[in-house]
Amino acid sequence: MSDYKSKIDQTKLPKHVAIIMDGNGRWAHEKGKHRVFGHRNGVKAVREVTEAAAEIGIEFLTLYAFSTENWSRPTLEVNALMALLVETVKNELDTLNKNNIRLKAIGDLSGLPQKTYKALLEGIEKTAKNDRMTLVLALNYSSRWEIVEAVKKVATMIKMNTCSVEDINDTLFTAQLATEFMPDPELIIRTSGELRISNYMLWQAAYAELYFTSVLWPDFTKEEFYKSIIDFQGRQRRFGKTGEQVNQNIAIN
Ligand code: IPE
Ligand code: IPE
Ligand code: MG
Questions:
Q1: What would the pLDDT profile of 82-122 be if each residue is shown by its tens digit?
Q2: Is the CB of 70 under 6 A from ligand 2?
Q3: Which long-range contacts (CB under 8 A, 24 or more apart) does 112-121 make?
Q4: How many folded domains does the chain comprise?
Q5: Has residue 209 been placed in a domain?
Q6: What would the pLDDT profile of 11-25 be if each residue is shown by its tens digit?
Q7: Would 1 be classed as within a structural domain?
Q8: CATH number for 23
Q9: For a tag site, which of 80, 92, 160, 193 has the least CB within 10 Å?
């Protein structure tokens, strides 16, 4: 096994990594098991990646756990996922506190079942003072939902005369999003070989580096995570400039 961790450049770490955890169902299917078995095993990967990210000093890790579109799955699966969430948040609370990790959530949390909502709020409250890393669960989240909510907030501000149309800009709009407390993700990872964004962080992904791997989520390990960081660090982020300009800047600094 190659040691990716030791090859990571600590001076070029992304502050925020966002992950689309995909492939639980196929992982279970390969083993002749029910999809829910895949979700249960996905929790192990969540634990691994959270630890891995904290160990190298990532500040924000956002995991896409349930999309607004995922409600259209079979009821049994949806219920199992909601119950698994309660169980996981409760079970992991001590570990989160021990590792000084703060839990947060983005999404339409009021639309979650009462039990899930309560467990989540408790987890968020009990880890609120931790400051090593923030683990954000995107739950009942979709980017279009988030953007529409932000538009409503801006419209209300205008109606209440706390802002004028001329004040609307990138910064003001970004501040209305559910992700307002963190920087845009520099790196977005999707597992399971699907090459799409599935309504995740559309606004925030403007200049994110995308990393796709065919590894199914329950098989995603610390090493796989570190591998994605190494890949990210090998890329040239140009933000519209030419490669020569970017290189010159590096030479000057
Ligand atoms: C990701 O795995 C987990 C959730 C969306 C909750 P999937 O359940 O989408 O797994 P596949 O894509 O069917 O294999
Ligand atoms: C995206 O995965 C949502 C989450 C990971 C929670 P899906 O499996 O729901 O995405 P699609 O439907 O294949 O695009
Ligand atoms: Mg999927």
A1: 999 999 999 999 999 999 999 999 999 999 999 999 999 99
A2: yes
A3: 112/82, 112/139, 112/140, 113/82, 115/82, 115/83, 115/86, 116/82, 116/83, 116/85, 116/86, 119/85, 119/86, 119/89, 119/90, 120/85, 120/89
A4: 1
A5: yes
A6: 999 999 999 999 999
A7: no
A8: 3.40.1180.10
A9: 160
